[in-house]
């Protein structure tokens, strides 16, 4: 039975802005994770036309992004705290389900969303939640936004999907950011521990060959993954000043252990004991050598003058 979209919208909007924006960092991280989880639970309730069970399992699997989404949100809240008297707008490019802008919206921060036309099935729902949504293919060139119109642009695990140089996209971000604006970007680490082991075992670090060979044109997987140094260089070449970098373990072993039943039967990349045990085994390595972690995170700022 299709749920009434008004009820779903009202449910999300009941998560009202509070003093989190100004709360101390210790309390804030847990509060942010709770907000994101609440938004995810609401998104799971969407019954999107054309969506099948595999799509819904993809949505449920976004709980694995909790650590990364929390870092994005925390960084934006801290930046917003430093500029309390200015109009503040965030653009999430490659939003897919709109998790980040919907979370920011629930905290009273103006957010917009943008993604490829193939994700348009979610765009209508995101807009009905009150977040402006634009359908746009990055291969089309300049983003359809005015110059200096946003304070933050987020680009979460998208750059590796670009079938061309990231230069025009990064330059477009620079253009639409206001002076002093922030670019937040994350992407898989090509030298993550799993990739190092795959090379040692003489296996490819690219997408599975079957996935690539059987894919429709154009291929939508990872065209190129990067090292931290490569991401930093491209960002600097595009005019930004790098402010913060971080290595992240996207999949938390303890979280997966607690949620193993949820993900064991997932039609979209199921996770079993083998994957959970591997994460436990790798934790000491990534703790001692963070550069072997799964994800790269970069925060860079457009100069004020």
Describe the structure.
There is one protein chain. With about 300 residues, the protein is α/β, with parallel strands linked by helices. The protein has a single domain, classed as Vaccinia Virus protein VP39 (Rossmann fold). It contains 13 helices and seven strands. A seven-stranded mixed β-sheet has the order 3-2-1-4-5-7-6, sandwiched between helices. Helix 7 links the parallel strand 4 and strand 5.
CATH architecture field: 3-Layer(aba) Sandwich
Outline, from the CA principal axes?
globular
Low-confidence stretches: 1-23
Count of helical stretches: 13
Spatial separation of the terminal alpha carbons:
55 Å
Order of strands, main sheet, comes to: 3-2-1-4-5-7-6
- How many discrete domains? 1
SSE order: HHHHEHEHEEHEHHHEHHHE
Report the radius of gyration as a whole number of Å. Answer: 19 Å
CATH C-level category: Alpha Beta
- Supply the helix-strand structural class: alpha/beta
What amount of the residues lies in strands?
A: 15-25%
CATH topology: Rossmann fold
Overall pLDDT metric: 84
